[in-house]
Amino acid sequence: MQAFKQTFDYYKTIKNITKIERIKFKNEKLNNNFDLYSIIYKSDGLLVHGYILQKKDLKKELPVIIYCRGGNRSFGENDPKTISSYKELLDIANKEIAIIFYPNYRGSSKSDGIDEYCGNDVNDIINLYPIIQKICNIKNPKITLYGWSRGGLMAVLVASKVNWIKTIIIGGALYNFSRNMKERPEMKKMFIEEFKFKKKDFIKRSPKYFMNNIPKNTSVLILHGSADNKVSVYDAYEYGQQCQKLNLTYKLIIYPNGNHGLTEYSDNVSREVIEWIS
Fold first, then answer.
1. Domains of the chain, with CATH numbers?
2. The whole model's pTM is what?
3. Does the pLDDT of residue 2 top 50, yes or no?
4. What element of type H or E holds 240?
5. Of 75, 170, 192, 274, which is least packed with CB atoms within 10 Å of its CB?
C-alpha cells in the first residue's frame, strides 16, 4: 500500500470529507502517542461522523482497518473515551501496523439520518472506501474490517457486497437472526417495534443467507466467548462451518467462559488480531 499523505492540511482537501479536526484524549499519554481526528463525510447524501486514529507523526506506509462498531443509534458509538478503551486497536496503531477508521454510521448522535441496523447504513462503511483511496493515493487498497457484535454483522454484510476486503475479523457476531430472536425475545420486540423489522428484514441481515457472496480470497478470524449471553456461541460455530464449506481461509477461537466482549481476554484478543492482520 502506498504511503498516507500524513498531513492535516491534506486531509482537509479530500472532497468527500466535509469537516475534519484534530481532537484530544483526556489521557495525556495517549495524546503524546497518537493523532486522533474527528471527521464528517458524505454517505448517500447524508453527513456521517467518524474518527481516524494513527500513530503520532506517522511517516510509514501502512494498511487500513475499518472498525465497525456495535450497538445502535448513539448507544455504543465511538468517541475518544471508547477509542481509548480498545486495547487491541491502540496496540495496532502504536506498533504502526495500521491506520484505523471508526465510522459511527447514520443515526448516531453526530450523524444525519436514521439507524437501520445493518440496512442502508452498511453504505456508511462502503462509502469510506473512496476517501481511503484518496488518503492512500492508491487505486485499489485492500482493507481489513474489524467488528464486534452488530459491528461484526456489518463487516460481513460489507464483505458480501464489495471486492476490496482483505480480511474480516468478527467477535460476538450474529449469524442466524431466526435462532437468536427465539433466544432473546426482548431483542426481537425491539427490532419490530423500534426498527420496524418485517420477516424479510431478519432474513436479509442473516449471514446464513448471503455469506456465499463473500469473495474467495477473503480471510476470516472468528472470536467468541462460550458464555456470551447476547449472541449464542453456536453462531461462531456456524460461521466456521460456512467458511469451511466455502473454502475461505479462516480461524475460529472460542474462549472458555468468555463474555460478549471478551473483556477478560483482552490481551489474547489483541495478540490474535495483530497476528491475523500482520
1. 1-141 (3.40.50.1820), 174-278 (3.40.50.1820)
2. 0.94
3. no
4. helix 233-245
5. 75
